[in-house]
Amino acid sequence: MRLLVVNWQDRENPQAGGAETHLHEIYGRLAARGHDVTLLCSGWTGAPPTTVLDGMRVQRVGSRWDFPLHVRRGYRALRAAHGPFDVLVEDINKLPLLTPLWAREPVDVVVPHLFGMTAFAEASVPVAATVVAAERLIPWVYRDCDFTAISESTRDDLVARGIRRQRTRVIYCGIDTAFYTPAPEERAQVPVLAYVGRLRQYKGVDLILQAFARLRDRRTTLEIAGTGDDRPRLEALAASLDLGERVRFLGFVSEGEKRALLRRAWVVSLTSPKEGWGITNLEAAACGTPVVASDSPGLRESVRDGETGCLVPHGDVNALVGAFERVLADPALVSRFGRAGRTFAESFTWDAAADHTEAHLRERVRAGGKAGGDHLSRAQRDDSRSAS
Question: 0.90 cut: is pTM over it?
Answer without folding.
Answer: no
